[in-house]
Amino acid sequence: xxxxxxxxxxxxxxxxxxxxxxxxxxxxxxxxxxxxxxxxxxxxxxxxxxxxxxxxxxxxxxxxxxxxxxxxxxxxxxxxxxxxxxxxxxxxxxxxxxxxxxxxxxxxxxxxxxxxxxxxxxxxxxxxxxxxxxxxxxxxxxxxxxxxxxxxxxxxxxxxxxxxxxxxxxxxxxxxxxxxxxxxxxxxxxxxxxxxxxxxxxxxxxxxxxxxxxxxxxxxxxxxxxxxxxxxxxxxxxxxxxxxxxxxxxxxxxxxxxxxxxxxxxxxxxxxxxxxxxxxxxxxxxxxxxxxxxxxxxxxxxxxxxxxxxxxxxxxxxxxxxxxxxxxxxxxxxxxxxxxxxxxxxxxxxxxxxxxxxxxxxxxxxxxxxxxxxxxxxxxxxxxxxxxxxxxxxxxxxxxxxxxxxxxxxxxxxxxxxxxxxxxxxxxxxxxxxxx
Length: 436
Known about the structure:
Distance between the termini: 62 Å
Order of helices and strands: HHHHHHHEHHHHHHHHHHHHHHHH
Number of helices: 23
C-alpha cells in the first residue's frame, strides 16, 4: 500500500548528493544568462563536440565551475522547449571583438535541432563531478515545459545519456518526477502539444510539472511509468485482468502516478488532471478505481468526486462490477460507504437523462445492496434520495418488513426530514394524516 507521496521529503534521495537550499541555484550573472545565450546561438552550438566545448568555455569565462546542476537543467529545458523553430536570423553570429563568425556555416548541413549527446559529453568532460539526479531535480524551474512528443524524446534521451556518462548504475530516478514540484505547471504541459505562437505565449500561465505528466501519458512508448520503480495497483481481486501489455494502459498501475496526479489536482490543476484521467476512465476504469481506493488518505474532494463517478461505471454492466463494489464498500484503507451511497444516488437520478427507467436502476441498486449486505445502511441514510422507493421494492421482494420500517422512521421524524427536502414522490402515501 502506498503511504502518501513517496518523495514528499523534497530533495534527491541519494545521500551522496549535495542537496541544500542552494542546490541548483544560479550563482552568477553569467550562470543566469547562459541558457538564454545558448538559445540565441542556435542549433550550431551542439553540432560538433570541439566547437561546443570551446564556446561553452568562452561563455563561462573559462570556468567549468559555472556549470552547476541548475544551469545544466535550465539549458536542457531550453533545448526541450526550442527543439524546432529557432529563427536563424535571431541567433548570435559573432562572439568576439573582431566580428568574425563563431563557426563556418554550411547552409546545406545546418542542423535542424539540438544534439543533446554532444552537449552532455562536453558538460561531463568539463565538470565530471556533476550529479545528474540533481540536474533532474532542478528541472523544477520557471519556464520548463515539454510541449510535444519530440520535446519529450529529447528530454528522456538527455537525462538517460547524462546518467550513463556519470556511470549511474541504478534505475532511472523516476521519484524526481513524482516528488512535489514548486513549478507544477511544467509537470502538466507536456501533454498539450502546443505549436502556434498564441499557444506558446500562454505557456507561462499553465502548469509545468503538469506538462511533464501529460506528455509522458500521451507518449508511453517514449517513457512509461510501468517500466520504472513503482508500487503497483493490486489487481489480483479482479475477475477479468487488465491488458497491461498495452503500453497506454500499463502506466496507470503505478500508485505513485495516481498519488502525484491527485496532489496536482489539489494544487489547482484539477481540469488538467481530469483530462489525463480520460484514458483510464474509458479503457481501464477498474484499475483506476482500485488505485484511487488503495492509495492512502487524505480523501480529498477531487478524489471523492472521481471515485463517485467511477463507481457508477460498476453499478452498470461491467465484468468486474461485483469485486470493485465489494472492495470499495469493505475498504480497510478508507471508509468509502458514504461515497458508494452517493454514487448510487447520482446514478439513480441520472436514469431518465440517460434513457433508462428509474425502476431498472433501483432494482440494480437493491441487488447491489443485498450483495454488499448494505440494505439497512442505505435505508437509514439521509443521503439516499430514493429511500421510500427502495423500501417498497425491498418489501415486495420480502427483504424488508415495511410496516416496521415505516414505524421506525415515523418515530425518528425521518419522514419529516424527507418531506422538507422533497426526497420522494411516495412520501404522502405513508405519512400519517394531520387532518382533524
